[in-house]
Amino acid sequence: MRLVHHEQAWLNYNTVCNPNYKKYATDVFCNQIDEITRSAISELRAAFQNLFDKQIVATESSGQAAIKLLIVRNDQLGIEGFQLDIKEDEVVIESQYSIGLLYGTFHLLRLLQTEKNIELGSIVEIPSQPLRMVNHWDNLDGSIERGYSGQSFFFENNEIIINERTVDYARLTASVGINGVVINNVNVRKEATQLITDRYLDRLKEMKNIFSAYGIKLFISLNFAAPMEIGMLETADPLDSSVINWWRTQLDYVHGYIPGFDGFLIKADSEGRPGPFTYNRTHADGANMLADIIKPYGGIIIWRCFVYNCQQDWRDTVTDRARAGYDNFVPLDGTLHSNVILQIKNGPMDFQVREPVSPLFGGLKATNQMLEVQIAQEYTGQQRHVAYLLPMFKEILDFRTHCDSAFDTVNDIVSGKTFDQPLGGIAAVINTGNDENWTGHDLAAVNWYGFGRLSSNPNLLAEQIAIEWIKLTYGNDEFVIQQILSILMPSWETYEKYTSPLGIGWMVNPGHHYGPNVEGYEYSRWGTYHRADQRGLGVDRTSKGTGYSTQYQSLNALMYESIDKCPEPLLLFFHYVEYTHHLKSGKSLIQHIYDTHFEGVEEVASMLKRWRSIEDKIERKIYDRVLERLQHQYSHSTEWRDIICSYFYRKSGIQDVHNRQIY
Q1: For strand 67-71 and strand 91-95, is the pairing parallel, antiparallel, or unpaired?
Q2: How far apart are CA 473 and CA 484, in angstroms?
Q3: The pLDDT value given to residue 314
Q4: Terminus of the chain with fewer CB atoms < 10 Å: N or C?
């Protein structure tokens, strides 16, 4: 078994704290000891040992303890909420359940590390989303699909790995409020289908026990064709009695072997994955069959809405992949059972640097829904470029759908608030691997940290989250904080500037999706995605084009329909626009393309300068790792700029007004 050293990321507890906080480092009292409160006490011990070189002990006497963890009756806190009371000589954390005490403990430690002066008073936090989860795309052989951070630390050589890193992963995950993990790839290979067989159940049970001690639900991805692959049946028809009986026998056995097993994630009828369409059945037929089997155990089926026919002819001006999710699932609204959640990508395409919010949000009114985002940076630099994605996530969560409710934002909908739905939440595709720093690029860890914090508390600002993470990871030096913050905050839009203009997307190399290739859309045999010609570029998705804009509620449909009202960052997603068209800035479209690509490169140069300015304040190996990535980003952004500008100069024949060398 490979052994790879790992760092503690934002739980390193090496930052300098106000020495006045040492008064809290005496004893800890908890009025209910279980596996989760033991985790909380263990975290307090580790933190105070590192921060103050002080050993604290758990005591049976509340009077002697400076930190009190108390299970109390307070219905307003719900299942996971906590109240943190900071007093002159003690800290009291109260919750109805032990998971709230764990979250309150992590919050206290966050305050100790990041605040110069903790104010006396009371803090109440209640997670906004019921399910806050990450989806790993790890394969049992140890590889990771879209993995940019080393190999899997869950699997190796078709075996499940459980070691100290498993525990530290659970600690990091729980510390930011994430309460669900899918450990294997949604594109389930044949060997991974066996995760629900005897071969793996012992190790899965062991992993679930570790996760449970941190309040984390364990999910696995299932292959819809499992009855054929491991059951030796001739069909996977969800309405066939032999198929139903096979699934019932298999899943009953899993839940009997691992009591409280939480559920399954399914990708079906997309990108060649098997699903109910093969048998002329609907997604509801497939999802409901599995949901009914696991309902007695309290299990959940999460069904992805990423469905499209990858063989369709993109030369057809009406055919539009963006329509697929809405067209497939809105007709099923109200037919999916109460323990099924539809997991919906933030946009209608595939995690591009800029997409409109999926019209399924607001279109579905009687179905549990989850938002799916990606922090793995598949199309945003693959953790070789800095791209702080929390500003994007904030935009998505705050987007108003204008559905028939006063609570019409995406955040309202997926929390269940809008339509009074029992289940919902947010999921992020993640590819943490066995690299020493977990995320390949040290600065990419902010997206993992930030996703958890935002999914728990969507009222947090992206800048606030970034500052928290910087302090926890690199300390409280104000100059360091400002330099790293100045790198992170504009980085998503900087990446957008030198890659994909105004929402067009996709101009990457096929397959691995890295690096500029203007005509590199996966299915380019059917024509370019962006449909650029000598007059202009963009896709007409209005009612006169593919009709995609009509899938939105009327106010948003009217906005996207109009070339004048359409938000300019999405202009080319919804409209074919001539190069000479003038934007609100007064610039022509072609000049905007030239200028933004040059600006993006200049902004990366500024990132490099800012990072170099803190060389003597950052641990050497971390400084060098980030420097190497930023140097690559500068070189790569230059390549992007030159290839994109040259392509559109040759298409349009229009000179850059600044006479820069672009060809």
Answers
A1: parallel
A2: 11
A3: 53
A4: N
For residue 301, the SS3 value is: strand
Of 76, 101, 125, the residue at which a domain comes to its end is 125
Full residue range of the structural domain in which residue 92 is found: 9-125
User: Containing H/E element for 95?
Assistant: strand 91-95
Residue 463 belongs to some domain of the structure:
no
At residue 19, what are phi and psi to the nearest 5 degrees?
-60, -20
What three-state secondary structure class fits 260?
coil
Give residue-wise pLDDT tens across range 529-562. 889 999 999 999 999 999 999 999 999 999 999 9
**Does residue 350 have an active-site annotation?**
yes
Residue 142 is assigned to a structural domain of this protein: yes
Asked if residue 451 and residue 405 are part of one domain, the reply reads yes
Cβ distance 562 to 552 under 8 Å?
no
Q: Does 7 have pLDDT greater than 80?
A: yes
To the query of whether residue 355 is one of the catalytic residues in this protein, the response is no
Q: Which of 271, 327, 333, 642 is catalytic?
A: 271
Structure-token pair, residue 50: 């590192």
Note whether residue 485 is domain-resident.
no
| Structure confidence at residue 311 (pLDDT) | 59
In the residue annotation, 271 being an active-site residue is answered as yes
Cα–Cα dist 553/248, whole Å: 40
- Catalytic residue among 125, 237, 350, 372, which? 350
DSSP E strand boundaries for 521-608: 536-537, 577-578
Q: Which of 378, 435, 442, 468 is catalytic?
A: 378
Query: How far is residue 217's CA from residue 180's CA, in Å, rounded to a whole number?
Result: 4
List, for residues 309-342, the tens digit of each pLDDT value: 655 655 565 678 899 999 999 999 999 999 999 9
